[in-house]
Write a structure and sequence with these properties.
- The protein is of the alpha+beta class and about 240 residues long.
- The radius of gyration is 20 Å and the shape is globular.
- A five-stranded antiparallel beta sheet has the order 6-7-3-9-10, with no helix packed on it. Strands 5-4-8 form a three-stranded antiparallel beta sheet, covered by helices on one side.
- The longest helix has 19 residues.
- β1, α1 and β2 form a beta-alpha-beta unit.
- The chain contains seven helices and ten strands.
Length: about 240
């Protein structure tokens, strides 16, 4: 159903003690929808309206992306980051199923690669590291693209980073830790996950997220446990980091 654009959204309303956040998140991930959390009916309405608008503007169905790494390149991980974070799984070797893609907002994927160092006698310059082929229902020919990396002996060139992609990567890590946070009751592990998430939020310049995490660390220090509402709100908000600046 998700491949055809029928997305499954799940919602938790009221006190997060009264529903299973991890289960609802897993369910919406499988349905390629969104997990919605609202403590009051009034705050639920705009979130539902946002999802309805997205579902009414689908550009493609049954969208597949085939990843073709160059020789020696290893694919370490991937996720959808925009319009909202979504963990992805392979449906075949190096193949990702995106299902339906919205027409009213960009869809961005993050792909983590391990790239081998240049060999001693290898010339410098741009080298292709991965190719992608996108297909969808009704498309006659796949859309193709290639990414490359610069092999260089210049220290300054080697230290250059794309700040936007780096920040997106930090937010990807925040999503991984906030997801784990909703699945553990161990106070020591919770503290480690929160500190890791705060570090990445600081790196990405997400001040509001840093403040949320600091509140949870304060809760943990004072009471020895986390507030389920704040933990669930962190998970929900972390998934929307790609839509905030």
């Amino acid at each position: 159903l998700a491949n055809l654009g029928i997305l499954l959204n799940t919602g938790g309303l009221g006190n997060a003690n009264n529903f299973n956040t991890a289960f609802l998140t897993d369910l919406s991930d499988k349905g390629r929808g969104s997990f919605i959390f609202a403590d009051t009916p009034a705050s639920l309405e705009p979130q539902l309206q946002k999802r309805l608008t997205e579902c009414q503007a689908m550009a493609t169905e049954n969208t597949l992306i085939q990843l073709i790494p160059s020789n020696g390149v290893i694919i370490k991980g991937f996720c959808r980051y925009r319009p909202e974070y979504l963990p992805l799984e392979e449906t075949a070797k190096n193949q990702l199923t995106l299902g339906a893609i919205a027409a009213n907002s960009p869809t961005d994927l993050l792909i983590q690669l391990e790239i081998p160092p240049a060999e001693f006698d290898q010339p410098t310059g741009n080298k292709d590291v991965i190719s992608l082929e996108l297909t969808a229902k009704g498309m006659t020919n796949p859309v193709k693209a290639t990414a490359s990396i610069l092999y260089t002996t210049s220290h300054d060139e080697a230290q250059k980073e794309n700040k936007e992609i780096k920040n997106d990567y930090y937010c990807w890590l925040i999503n991984l830790t906030s997801n784990e946070l909703s699945r553990t009751d161990d106070a020591n592990q919770q503290k480690e996950l929160l500190e890791e998430a705060r570090h990445n939020a600081e790196k990405a310049g997400k001040t509001d997220m840093v403040n949320q995490i600091n509140q949870q660390l304060d809760d943990l220090e004072k009471s020895g446990k986390l507030d389920p509402n704040r933990t669930t709100k962190l998970l929900r908000d972390s998934r929307d980091l790609g839509g905030t600046k």
